[in-house]
Amino acid sequence: MPGVIDSYQVAARYYDGAYAAMKDLVDASFYVGLAKASGGPVLEIGCGTGRVLLAIAREGIDIHGVENSGPMLGILNENLRHESPALGARVNLHTDDMRTFRLDRKFPLVTIPFRPMQHMFTVADQVAALRSAAAHVAVGGLLAFDVYYPKFDMLTGSLGEEKLEAQWSPVSDPEVTVRRYVRKEAVNKINQSISLTFTFRSFRHGQLILEEKEPLKMSYYTYPHLRALFLLAGLEPVAEYGSFARTPLDNSSDEMIFLLRPVRS
To answer: Is 19 helix (H, G, I), strand (E, B) or coil?
Structure first.
């Protein structure tokens, strides 16, 4: 497969359980609403295990997904086996790099949901990813994506401290409790990135039966940085929000969410 990599080897197995346990995660309905308004088909970049992609496909909308993590795609393909054949026929998957891929079609809606842009660590990669996305937006169409709003007063706090993020029981084994912990290892203020370690501990009847760890690095963005990237990528904002409830983007925001369109010459 072109572009396939082995990222998320550990986290992919726990991904769906962890995020299903986070009841305040409300981004899927936002992207479903955009997909319905567009009429489809939709292109989702960084589709992962299909948390957002499948929610859109369940609405009867055709969707293409691009992902370069082999382990994440493996989970997505397993998830598709539990869906109806009709839904499966609406889903097309592409294994490729979000910076360089090109499909032979354009879409009324292109999305990069749940922060794949935060896995782009240089300006060159960030611009390349946005240009690749923009190249697939049809005339009159939109590109939508989100990143988190950096809280600078909290950025360097709690370094080295392990925190519990989520707890759940797998459907396949309800007697097991899985807990996901995160530890912030380092903050690189020059390159605007954070290094983390995720730890997954599984317990049966209160006894630890498995512990797995995986590092993760994420970039973070300031608002002027993003606006400069849009200029370099040939994009202009149509709307911007500070939450998935479409509240204004301001100092109280937790998210930075953008609807963009390519600048047509």
So the answer is: helix
Cα distance between the two ends of the chain: 35
The owner of tokens 């970049």 is 45
Nearest to 143 by CA among 26, 239, 243, 264: 239
Across the 265 residues of the chain, what is the mean pLDDT of every consecutive 10-residue run?
A: 76 97 96 98 98 98 97 97 98 98 98 98 98 98 98 89 97 96 97 97 97 98 98 98 98 97 90
Match 């519990």 to its residue by tokens: 164
**Omega within 30 of 0 (cis) for the link into 150:** no
Distance between CA atoms of 169 and 16, rounded to whole angstroms? 11
Q: Measuring CA to CA, which residue among 179, 164, 105, 185 is closest to residue 139?
A: 105
H runs (alpha helix) in 148-204: none
pLDDT for the residue 2: 53
Contact 94, 103 (CB under 8 A): yes
| Pairwise CA distance, residues 117 & 46, whole Å | 9
**Residues 98, 117: Cα–Cα separation, whole Å:** 9
Q: Which two tokens stand for residue 20?
A: 């299903």
Q: Which CATH superfamily is domain 11-149+221-262 in?
A: Vaccinia Virus protein VP39 (3.40.50.150)
Peptide bond into 41 cis (omega under 30): yes
SS3 at position 14? helix
Boundaries of every domain in the chain: 11-149+221-262, 162-219
